[in-house]
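so my prof wants the structure for this chain in the tokens format not the other one, which i didnt know existed until like an hour ago. anyway here's the sequence
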Amino acid sequence: MTNPAYLLVHGAWGGAWCWNEAAPRHDQRGITWRAVDLPSSRVGADPGIDLAADAAVVVEAANALDCPVVLVGHSYAGSVITEAAPGVPKLAGLFFIAATVPEVGQSHSDVARLVAVRTAMDDAIRLDGDILRLDVDAAAMALYHESTPELREWATARLSTQTLASFRGARTSGTVDVTSRYVLCQHDRALDPSLQELVSQRCDEVVALASDHCPFLSHSEALTDLMTG
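here's what i got, hopefully its the right format
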């Protein structure tokens, strides 16, 4: 059987750059991977760009790969890959990292409100009309507190904006018959571990990782082991 490629989908305020630490681990093991940039996370994005628009980008990127594909979604991108999954005929699996996993009719925001726990990330978000901005100093410790200071500075300098519409777009897609795995980040200050524990029950397999919200930076080798093991 052909080995799958891993399509890496970043969370809100991020970009394909998020995977810079993890991607070399894939290369060392001869693993095929691609990373996408979601349109909702671009500076100057049309405020109307929503979950469906992000999912369409993932579908296009996945179907451009001439092999089976595992969709990997971090945080908000858990909602994106869930919405995109039925549009990928060669889908081989779903892999969620500290992610929201909506039911049909739920949005990322709906899932995030299932547990009434305020996080450090909530305190970092600023609403500016239809755009969500970040207090980067607060976001640094919410997202990357287990990364090195150098990596933390590098990442926060690249954080973008996020359309409010992306968080409010509801899942419309049906269920796909592939294995889903969930990495629960136990030290997370952005998506509370209690929420992750709840939504991870919607997946086939769950594994806990002693990590902050962004293990692709802080624990890249351990995360690669979980993704490809």
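also thought this was worth mentioning. The chain is about 35% helix and 20% strand.
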